[in-house]
């Protein structure tokens, strides 16, 4: 039923997927969330190591160019952590949609989102048609 066809969406909205399919997507999303959480922890550890290294260096053993490079690397880690945390938020919202059985319904068109799209981008809230229309 989730092949891009119009899905009747009542006040409570019903997912075009059955319970087994929702369980499949829940598992897919949880796996991606676990990996993203591990990535955030790894980057936070790198950031802590970089801070500790910066504190241990003295002005005589540290070149200004190295200090600039290290600062840029720390900034890049901060940005990557923020990006991953935003992604985790998207995944959490997808899990909420599964729980309230509105997962797989395009918030723009009200149509079912194709299963293939959800497998590729399981946190998406819009169908490919709505996404292409946004780009125009």
Q: Can you offer a commentary on this structure?
A:
This protein has a single domain, classed as DksA, coiled-coil domain (Four Helix Bundle (Hemerythrin (Met), subunit A)). It is built from 4 helices and no strands. It has helices spanning 19-56, 64-99, 115-120, 128-135. Helix 1 (19-56) runs antiparallel to helix 2 (64-99). The radius of gyration is 21 Å and the shape is elongated. 15% of the residues are buried.
CATH topology type: Four Helix Bundle (Hemerythrin (Met), subunit A)
Q: What's the CATH C level?
A: Mainly Alpha
Overall mean pLDDT stands at 84
Helix content: 55-70%
Total number of beta strands = 0
Describe the main β-sheet briefly.
none
Class by alpha and beta content = mainly alpha
Q: What is the CATH-assigned architecture? A: Up-down Bundle
- The CATH homologous superfamily corresponds to DksA, coiled-coil domain
Kindly report how far apart the N and C termini lie.
28 Å
Strand content: under 5%
Shape: elongated
Oligomer: single chain
Rg, nearest Å: 21 Å
Give the SSE string: HHHH
Low-confidence stretches: 1-12
User: Helical stretch count?
Assistant: 4
Number of domains as seen in the coordinates = 1
Short description:
65% of the residues lie in helices and 0% in strands. The chain starts with 18 loop residues before the first helix and ends with a helix.
Describe this protein with a few key phrases.
4 helices, 65% helix, disordered N terminus, single chain, 0% strand, mainly alpha, Four Helix Bundle (Hemerythrin (Met), subunit A), 136 residues, elongated
